[in-house]
């Protein structure tokens, strides 16, 4: 069986406590990422909207311009901060997400930026499924009032380790993209995400373990810490599930770093004991084969 994960990897999910001050948030993110790197993490993840409050009212105020790439420091302080932090940490860094303003179309996106240990941009993901829900009496949210959806699935290639599927928060509810990333050889599916105190207890862990068991890959979900002074209360509970859907580590709602050691053996073992990879009937469902 092919090695999906070329060598063991320590993953770190930084459940960051952020406030309204972007510069302070970036400085704080740096210290937590360096802490994770010092603990041996080779891949470090920040949450969705890690340097701003989460919410439609906040997206335009905090949006940065990323195109044409590379942006100037004035256009995107977060791009430059993340690049420098990745290089200083000497680790892969997933800059959870930031609100992005596309300068030509004037559209806003919820965009993740990924940097290599040398500080080079190696991938971006614009959230493809926007968080538009209405649970009467509980929570109504319409990202699409402000944001536009991205139109591409994202699979990162980390040369030393292997492939990682990347998507953002509500994207996790759509198993098709996860399945395609797994079929293309991803060992890990990563979701920076800010669930809330209604859907979080109901679905957060369930969805993480479901994507893991569907695909027999590792899954990492990285939330902001909960801020009761903010208008949106993130669920927290950043977690890592293994390819057998065991929880390797999970936070509560406070700021912390969740670590997990990932290896190829675990993927191989689960795939040989429950061999759904060789039992699939793509003749019955060719459109989810990942071959298209
Ligand atoms: O799917 C959910 O319940 C929450 C999603 C969310 O908070 C988001 O996409 O930002």
Please, could you describe this protein's structure?
The protein is α/β, with parallel strands linked by helices and 292 residues long. The chain has a single domain (9-274), classed as Nitrilase/N-carbamoyl-D-aminoacid amidohydrolase (4-Layer Sandwich), CATH 3.60.110. Helix content is 25%, strand content 27%. It has 7 helices and 14 strands. The strands form 3 sheets. Strands 5-4-3-2-1-14 form a 6-stranded mixed β-sheet. A 6-stranded mixed β-sheet has the order 8-9-10-11-12-13, covered by helices on one side. Strand 9, helix 4 and strand 10 form a beta-alpha-beta unit. Helix 1 (22-38) packs parallel to helix 3. The longest helix is centred in the first third of the chain and has 17 residues, at 22-38. It is globular, with a radius of gyration of 18 Å. It starts with 8 loop residues before the first strand and ends in a 13-residue tail after the last helix. The model has no long low-confidence stretch (mean pLDDT 96). It binds 2-oxoglutaric acid. The site of 2-oxoglutaric acid has 10 residues, from helix 5.
